[in-house]
Amino acid sequence: MLDVNKIRNDFPILSQKAYNKPLVYLDNGATTQKPQFVLDKINKFYSSQNSNIHRGAHYLSEQATAEYEKARLTIKQFVNANHLHEIIFTKGTTDSINLVAFSYGEKFVNEGDEILVSEMEHHSNIVPWQLLCERKNATLKVIPINDAGELIMSEFEKLINKNTKLVAVTHVSNTLGTINPIKEIIRVAHKNNVPVLIDGAQGIQHTKVNVQELDCDFYAFSGHKIYAETGIGILYGKEKYLNSMPPYQGGGNMVDIVSFEKTTYNELPHKFEAGTTNFGGAISLSAALQYISNIGIDKISEYELDLLNYATEKLSEIEGLVIYGTANNKSSAISFLLDGIHHYDVGVMLDKTGVAVRTGTHCNQPLMKRLGITGTVRASFSFYNTKEEVDILCNSINRVKQIFS
Ligand code: PMP
Question: Which of 222, 224, 227 to mutate to test the pocket of ligand 1 (most atoms within 8 A of CB)?
Fold first, then answer.
């Protein structure tokens, strides 16, 4: 079993107090805290290796370039990609999805085509496709969910057809916590010759991701949600697609020969890494993945599932509390509402007890419409959270209830 006390000591921020109370950080779906191991790596990089990558012919530049490319290798191994050049550094999940929506869209999507997303998608996995559909006169189609917050697979199979050019679904719902059956989605899509993009923003930090085993065509995630810095993210893409897609942004590094008459482009992965990338962020992401690998992603999943089950049980005991998202297969987020109390008020009052949760629509406005609500309170967990913290959350919720009654 995972030694949570030891792990908590790895995260300096967790020992802080909020309003003189122990900080209970349950907003990990929004962003995660950083272990000392990652902070030290960032410090070391900027203290002794910092220089722009791929450009200078000097000592520091060579070191920085080597670290950056070593980071790409760590990420390739973490997701088990087939090729190193299938790992593209981006700014984050949003940036990765926009890259595919623009570039894949330019090449493969035409008037009358369809893109399939689901009803539980984050705005980041809706709006880029809407922009593409507007540009190309294509149509966005939506896979519905049932009342438990699971995709209705039979509807998905009905929606996919010869006009479908891409399926884009989330691995794990940031609001409902649902783990989608992505392997089955990919199988069905491929049977119809349709590629699949997985939004892994809430998946990669909680469960083992093996892109070759999944056979996904694209997998996007953010560094800041997996214990690394913000402003760095990954797009994994199959070589066959990335090679045939045009560049997303123009600038330095993504070119081969530039002239006013004609410019030719660099090879993968550089073709998609225009300008100075967040190389410091890439190194922090590599460190974060090493940190996780040392603990073991399977151990993390097991611990987080046990914590989720405990939290679900305890929260369900609170009268007047309704949980949104009751899928059979769930990951580390619980959304709820308290009878008669606005979600924002609950969040503000929990905060005063040292408990950090998120309230609102969670960038899921279409999902909120489906649920018939204006927002939820969301507690989202990491492997550094404890059952004692869940108890504090529940006690604080009971106090909020008392005050409002
Ligand atoms: N998709 C999902 C499911 C998310 O939870 C988030 C972040 N809340 C995003 C996409 C966007 O991630 P980022 O803001 O890091 O680009």
Answer: 222
Atom of ligand 1 nearest to the CA of 91: 16
* 324 and 241 within one domain: no
Distance 29 CA to ligand 1 centre (A): 9
Q: Is the domain of 280 the same as that of 347?
A: no
Ligand 1 probe mutation, 91, 120, 122, most atoms within 8 A of CB? 122
Q: Which structural domain, as residue segments, surrounds residue 271?
A: 39-294
The pair of three-digit structure tokens given for residue 379, joined into one six-digit string: 């507690």
Condensed to tens digits (0 to 9), the pLDDT of residues 238-278 reads 999 999 999 999 999 999 999 999 999 999 999 999 999 99
Beta strands in 33-126 (DSSP E): 87-90, 114-118
68 lies in the same domain as 87: yes
Identity at 362, one-letter amino acid code = H
- CA-proximal residue: ligand 1, atom 8 (nearest): 30
Same domain, 117 and 251: yes
Residues contacting ligand 1 via CB (< 6 Å): 92-94, 122, 124-125, 170, 174, 199, 201-202, 222, 363
Distance 143 CA to ligand 1 centre (A): 19
Q: What is the pTM of this model?
A: 0.98
What does 198-257 look like in DSSP terms, one character per residue? EE-TTTTTTS---HHHHT-SEEEEEGGGGTS-SS-EEEEE-HHHHHHSPPSS-SSSSEEE
| Domain boundary residue, one of 242, 269, 294 | 294
- Residue 168 is inside which H or E element, if any? strand 164-170
| Residue 351 and residue 398 share a domain | yes
Q: Residue 214: what pLDDT?
A: 98
pLDDT of residue 86: 99
Q: What confidence score (pLDDT) does residue 1 get? A: 85
For residue 56, the model assigns a pLDDT of: 78
Q: Two tokens at 389?
A: 């913290």
- Domains: count for the chain: 2
pLDDT beneath 50, residues of the chain:
none
Give the pLDDT confidence score for residue 55 in this predicted structure: 75
Q: Within this chain, do residues 374 and 263 fall inside the same structural domain, yes or no? A: no
Total Cβ atoms within 10 A of residue 70:
13
CATH of the domain at 214: 3.40.640.10
Q: How far is the CA of 121 from the centre of ligand 1 (A)?
A: 10
Same domain, 162 and 306: no
Ligand 1 center to 292 CA (angstroms):
20
Residues 84-127 pLDDT 10s? 999 999 999 999 999 999 999 999 999 999 999 999 999 999 99
311 shares a domain with 290 = no
